[in-house]
């Protein structure tokens, strides 16, 4: 039956450009089961003080990932992948890709990781009356204006990475509402850019740009976002096997695909996505009472209001330590693959003291606005009386992944935001019962992990592409409950009392130790 699904085009293809991998996932639209996958590793570059990716690498990486999916289909089912039922593209949110009237990129892509927009973000927050984080697209545009950058008068449009790829594949400059909400604030009543805030920005910009004409069109999930053109098909598949004319769904950001991949689009649900960065999304029942610099207000792919806690640093430092222990295993003459090393180390953390025995770990490779850090310095810190065991070291490392996230979640707790269940996805959750258990302690709520957790955003984007084929009038939450997650295997872990107390003690030390981090940034 799976071969029939591929041959008949009863499929949806999701592509996500993440911070370290470009991944493609082909699913059966009847039950969202995975039919084939492909990926390509890539890394951001720090060039002339800017975190960036070269756009040529975007296309070479997409082609490699698509070719891997096509090869997987060929190997599994013995047929060529010539068409699919629908396609969707997602990518890292925010950032800055400005183009002139001829479609030429005016400055190198500035990713979400850049924190050089402090003055702009502060002015925007004051003028618009909502928190505008450093990484938002409007903050990058406004900072370019404040800095009198020569490219500003030439801007004809600007967009996100997902919006750029979709534009090249279809010829349409559109964004899914979730991704658009990381460019400029959205009014959840209209599912479009907030009109009053656009007017406020016009006053702030004082004629230097007409932001309405620069922003992409906003579309909600399931909307018609165009078709794959002949040029677009050639960009994805230079071999010429893939047909044009395939329907495309609105491009989305990685936050939106994370919500879909974890079925967290209804009020009182949330999700945590852990990768190079880590962020939590909580779907709100009501607006927050005041502006908080730790909280971004974005939306689900359907346009409902979401409180987002975004941290620039996630599991990269944990992965670096796993790599180091892998090298040690090789030096001992007992090499093991990366997954085995990672799994063994995480399992050790279960044997640790609940507060990690006095060991502290900071995962800050980059600056962390929530923690007040303009730059990062990864650190392991302990007192002479700490119990320095492998188990405590590893628990401190996992706790450290969630540390800054907890600082933001405390703000939501102060707003009495209710959370029935948190869903988690990302590679750190592939080792059963470890990071999931510790996250439950960190957020004080049950944490669910599904069998799609390791596929992550690419699978979530494929689901949104499948939703493009759903009957008119179908709600996204209904589609997820009735079609996608109706028979999904989900593991739920409740907070453990000892872990909750231990994590609280760890977080108290973590908060106090941020002064050590700040000193390290000044000194090194």
UniProtKB/TrEMBL annotation:
One of its GO terms (molecular function) is kinase activity. InterPro entries: ATPase_NBD (IPR043129), FGGY_C (IPR018485), FGGY_Carb_Kinase (IPR050406), FGGY_N (IPR018484). Residues 12-236 form the Carbohydrate kinase FGGY N-terminal domain. Residues 271-467 form the Carbohydrate kinase FGGY C-terminal domain. The keyword Kinase applies. SUPFAM superfamilies: Actin-like ATPase domain. It comes from the Bacteria. Keywords: Carbohydrate metabolism, Kinase, Transferase, Xylose metabolism. Belongs to the FGGY kinase family. PANTHER family: SUGAR KINASE, XYLULOSE KINASE. This is ATPase. The lineage of its organism: Bacteria, Bacillati, Actinomycetota, Actinomycetes, Micrococcales.
